[in-house]
Amino acid sequence: MKPILTALTTLGIALALTTPASAALAVGAQAPDFTARGAQGGIILTVNLSELLKKGPVVLYFFPSAFTGGTGPESHEFADNIDKFRAAGATVLGMSRDTVDTLARFSAEECAGKFPMASADESIVDGFDVNDGAMFNTRTTYVIASSGKIAYVHDDDDYSDHVKNSLAFIQAMKK
Length: 175
What we know:
Blueprint: H1 2-18, E1 35-40, E2 43-48, H2 49-53, E3 58-62, H3 71-80, H4 82-87, E4 91-96, H5 100-109, E5 117-119, H6 122-127, E6 140-144, E7 150-155, H7 162-174
Parallel strand pairs: 3-4, 4-5
Antiparallel strand pairs: 1-2, 1-5, 3-6, 6-7
């Protein structure tokens, strides 16, 4: 029995060391406030989470990097549904570790200037627990209630359900 337990423990440790941690803040946790530089429609701006929350809930989606993989389709889908998010009282904000210049171009080309994109520094990435252990961050969408508490989390590298699920949650919140 002991050799089996030792083998399982060793396997568990090996998997933990080789599998990237996909952690996110838990529902009910306080979202860390931040101020970050970003862009909307190519125009440089500054965003502050507590200021955005004064208007209502915030859908904050982290993506690995602009102009890669599912990031374009995900951002297009957020842009295509922005009126529905706004009708439900929510503000959408995209974040990655990209430079502000890259996000200015991305916001104009991929998001049609419909919502801001901001550059997440290490304190933001760590604060929201979206560090993938490499030079990117995880694909994680948070719905943050006006109180600043995390109300919903979708943490999945597959971009396909982030918009649909966060929109459904925001619409249910409004009811």
